[in-house]
Write a structure and sequence with these properties.
The complex is a heterodimer of chains A (about 280) and B (about 290). Chain A has about 280 residues and is mostly helical. Chain A is about 75% helix and about 0% strand. Chain A has a single domain, classed as MetI-like (MetI-like fold), CATH 1.10.3720. Chain B has a single domain, classed as MetI-like (MetI-like fold, Orthogonal Bundle), CATH 1.10.3720. A two-stranded antiparallel ribbon of chain B has the order 1-2. Classes of the chains: A mainly alpha (about 280), B mainly alpha (about 290). Chain A: Keywords: Cell inner membrane, Cell membrane, Membrane, Transmembrane, Transmembrane helix, Transport. Chain A: It is found in: Cell inner membrane; Cell membrane. Chain A: Belongs to the binding-protein-dependent transport system permease family. Chain A: It is a multi-pass membrane protein.
Chain lengths: ~280, ~290
């Protein structure tokens, strides 16, 4: 009996160590948002919780920084939500439509379209970042939400995911629908979409987090400070901290924290959907 | 395609159109431009360009700096992949085993998935702050003056640490779901045949996890190559200088800041070839994976 207990202690010990490894950096960040900047410069993070959170929070959210004075935490938060939700919705809608066309219609060029679309899975945006920038510039979409979101959608992960799922839907369903006189549009909206609810939710979570956390593309595409997302703003924060006499750690730490909280909440609260979406989409 | 599909023609074309237009404009066009401009030398003032054949590639391969960055990228990828896989595997095996608090551990170990890479880099910068960073103080105890952004190895270590921290959750989730899909009967049979938990792990569990592991290997290499951009950029604080950087970061620095379009495009093409090779390798593994399960 004693041996069993010892191994349980080791198991929990390892898991607690692992959890601490994951948690401590964020807890440190959290503590640093509660103390004034002057204390950070003197002692850095400590174990005591200060009372400056409201102050730091107000500075970060409502006071403008940067050159234009339009770059508040609130405006960055708004842009982050637009990017995260716009990207997720766009990707799901376009992906579902394309997957439906590929799986359920007799098309002569279906195979060709399939290959055209799925080749995009082979190359990430990062390897064609400069020409993509030029295309967006040529289209006059720099510093716009379209320019921010649409090029990120040009990869077929969602299409692939829904194609796999549609193929697993029993054939009898579409046969029955046809016998009952349902056309392709009715079948899609009344049967297939409700049937895909869980898949849509899972995909939405993954895509929201992915879109929210985009960094390189927004860094290139948005130069207007009122278009910055929180994650893109991190770069500016780091550079501002470097040059300042009294670096505004309070403000920057609150912003970093806010950049982390929404996607983390989504992942934690919808954990089972998220895990399902992640492990099934990549297979 | 389904056997019992619909025969309309206009609707599917309409449905496919948005996807096709977007990938034509934002995938095929830029990819072709990248391929093409890798064979040209761009005038720095934007007055046209001259065809130079493979000159851009030759310049890259003979450049000491590029070779050094490529070498760093390889080392960086191996270290990040190895450590994030190893840590995640240990944690997944333990999380699969414990009964009490299993759900809490799972949540605590996976939430970092949602943290953006540049934020991970930012936290690393704070922890390694020159005057009061907790990790700087930790290394100070051993007599090492830690200097991120000045000392090459110190900066590299901060990058690797942040990248591993950020990647452990993904691997943990996949390993855990792989472990949980091992049938009960197999585990019980192994329990009866083999009393030692260690050899049971290496003889039964580990081989059954191998397909997941191979798949994750590719995912992790791709992550180290591309997704760590945000970490590299924040840790070097936007000042490449003598700091370690990855190949993707170099593409960005040369093309976007240095305006060397040809050289940057050639680098993009090299990365394309690299990632294509990895993806094809991955697809072949997935085929094999089906036989396992």
């Amino acid at each position: 009996m004693r041996k069993v207990k010892l191994s349980a202690v080791i198991d929990h010990g390892v898991l607690i160590l692992g959890s601490l490894f994951m948690m401590l950096p964020l807890l440190m960040l959290l503590q640093m948002t509660t103390i004034p900047d002057t204390e950070i410069i003197r002692t850095g993070p400590s174990l005591t919780v200060g009372d400056q959170f409201d102050d730091n929070f107000n500075k970060a959210m409502f006071e403008a920084s940067g050159f234009s004075g339009e770059n508040t935490g609130l405006s960055m938060l708004k842009n982050s939500f637009i990017l995260g939700i716009g990207f997720a919705v766009g990707k799901i809608v376009i992906g579902m439509m394309a997957a439906y066309a590929i799986v359920y219609f007799r098309l002569r060029f279906a195979t060709f379209a399939f290959w055209l679309i799925f080749t995009t899975l082979l190359l990430p945006l990062e390897v064609r970042i400069l020409p993509s920038y030029e295309v967006v510039q040529w289209l006059g979409m720099l510093n716009t939400y379209q320019g921010l979101i649409i090029p990120l959608i040009a990869s077929a992960t969602a299409t692939f995911f829904f194609r796999q799922f549609f193929r697993s839907v029993p054939e009898e369903l579409v046969e029955a629908a046809r016998i009952d006189g349902a056309g392709p549009v009715k079948f899609f909206i009344d049967i297939l979409v409700p049937l895909s609810r869980t898949m849509i939710a899972a995909m939405f979570i993954i895509m929201f987090v992915y879109g929210w956390n985009q960094y390189l593309w927004p860094t290139m595409i948005t130069t207007d400070e009122d278009m910055y997302t929180l994650v893109r703003g991190i770069k500016q924060i780091v550079q501002v901290l470097e040059g300042a006499v009294v670096p505004e750690f309070g403000r920057s730490n609150v912003l970093a924290l806010i950049a982390v909280i929404p996607p983390v909440l989504v992942v934690v609260f919808f954990q089972s959907w998220f895990v399902k979406g992640l492990t099934e989409s990549d297979k | 395609m389904k056997r019992a599909g619909f025969d309309t023609l206009s609707l599917p074309v309409l449905l496919l159109l948005p996807q096709l237009v977007i990938i034509a404009v934002f995938f095929y066009w830029p990819t072709i431009v990248a391929l093409q401009s890798s064979f040209y030398l761009q005038d720095p003032f934007g007055f046209g360009s001259t065809f130079v054949g493979l000159q851009n590639y030759a310049d890259l391969f003979s450049s000491r700096e590029y070779r050094k960055i490529a070498w760093f990228t390889v080392t960086f990828s191996i270290l990040v992949t190895f450590f994030s896989l190893a840590i995640a595997l240990v944690l997944a095996v333990k999380a699969d085993k414990v009964l009490r608090g299993a759900k809490t551990y799972r949540t605590l170990l996976m939430w970092v998935y949602a943290v953006a890479p540049p934020v991970a880099g930012f936290i690393a910068v704070i922890m390694f702050n020159q005057s009061w960073g907790p990790l700087t103080e930790f290394f100070g105890v051993f007599g090492h003056t830690y200097m991120v952004g000045v000392n090459f190895n110190d900066t590299a270590f901060a990058m690797i640490l942040a990248s591993v921290w950020k990647q452990v959750p993904v691997n943990f989730i996949f390993f855990l779901s792989g472990l949980q899909s091992i049938p009960r009967s197999v585990r019980e049979a192994a329990m009866i045949d083999n009393r030692s938990a260690t050899s049971r792990f290496w003889d039964v569990t580990f081989p059954l996890l191998a397909p997941t592991g191979f798949f994750l290997l590719i995912i992790n290499i791709t992550y180290s190559l591309f997704d760590t951009f945000g970490i590299v950029d924040t840790v070097v604080k936007g000042e490449p200088g003598n700091n370690p950087m990855t190949l993707v970061y170099k593409v960005y620095v040369d093309g976007f800041r240095g305006n060397d379009l040809g050289g940057s495009s050639a680098q993009s093409v090299i990365l394309m070839v690299l990632v294509l090779a990895l993806t094809i390798f991955q697809f072949r593994l997935i085929e094999r994976r089906i036989h396992y399960t």
